[in-house]
Write a structure and sequence with these properties.
Blueprint lengths: L10 E8 L7 H16 L3 E3 L1 E10 L4 E2 L9 E6 L18 E3 L4 H12 L9 E8 L2 E4 L11 E6 L2 E6 L1 E3 L2 E6 L10 E8 L2 E8 L11 H13 L3 E2 L1
Parallel strand pairs: 5-6
Antiparallel strand pairs: 1-14, 1-15, 2-8, 3-4, 3-5, 3-7, 7-13, 8-12, 9-10, 11-12, 13-14
Helix pairs in contact: 1-2, 1-3
């Protein structure tokens, strides 16, 4: 199987969901966003970190206020034990991550709830603007010829590299980013708040899971599950 890493911005799938009826419930919206991530990812990939950007919120118009900014505008949660060489640091200088023994939907929702409630100022309610998941692991499509291998050959910007494979529960998993040579995870996710709706972006950097690849059917399965849950592909 020939594997290639797509250049930025990768292959992107965008879905949207109307949330006008619950727009004032920032915790509920976060739970819906995380639920969408895990619905799409089931059996396909696992998030290993999450970053949140927060803002004071105008609940009447469902929009973030441009100023002032919350005392804690950015935060990060990541799994304590990470695959070897995996890079999962914050995009923001001096932002130290909160570490979790396991990264799952319950842990992520609890982190967001605590993060949003940490502001004790007299400003309006704190809401989240976006959630970003930029370090992930992905399960390679089943292929008996690769089960005993510790790496997979991938083409990156015209060069060929050996990317490490980890074996878990009978499946081969790859992960990223892993430094200067592999700048992106196999999947990256972002959920953004827009007025009255949420936008869920799935970015695919490995050709394994982009249209025409052997894993594309799993991506389509994830999109179908989200559609059944009220999301609409843009």
């Amino acid at each position: 199987m020939r594997v290639r890493m797509h250049d930025f911005p990768g292959a992107t799938v965008r879905l949207k969901r109307d949330v006008e009826e619950v727009a004032e419930d920032h915790i509920r919206l976060a739970e819906m966003a995380i639920g969408a991530l895990y619905t799409f990812s089931e059996g396909l990939c696992l998030p290993l970190s999450m970053e949140i950007t927060a803002a004071y919120w105008d609940d009447e118009f469902d929009l973030p206020l441009p100023s002032p900014r919350p005392r804690r505008e950015h935060g990060m949660l990541r799994r304590r034990r990470l695959p070897e060489r995996l890079y999962a640091n914050s995009r923001y200088r001096n932002e130290l991550p909160t570490l979790a023994e396991e990264f799952d939907a319950v842990t992520a929702a609890s982190f967001i709830k605590g993060f949003l409630s940490s502001d004790d100022s007299d400003e309006p309610a704190v809401g989240w603007e976006d959630l970003a998941f930029n370090a992930t692991a992905a399960r390679l499509p089943d292929d008996d010829s690769r089960h005993e291998r510790s790496s997979i050959r991938i083409e990156v910007a015209g060069h060929h590299l050996d990317h490490p494979i980890e074996r878990h529960a009978g499946s081969d998993w790859i992960y990223g980013p892993i430094g200067a040579s592999i700048l992106h995870a196999p999947f990256e996710f972002q959920v953004q708040r827009e007025q009255g709706e949420m936008v869920f972006d799935v970015t695919i950097y490995w050709s394994t899971w982009s249209p025409g690849g052997p894993g594309w059917a799993d991506v389509e399965k994830g999109m179908a599950a989200l559609t059944e849950d009220g999301w609409v592909q843009d």
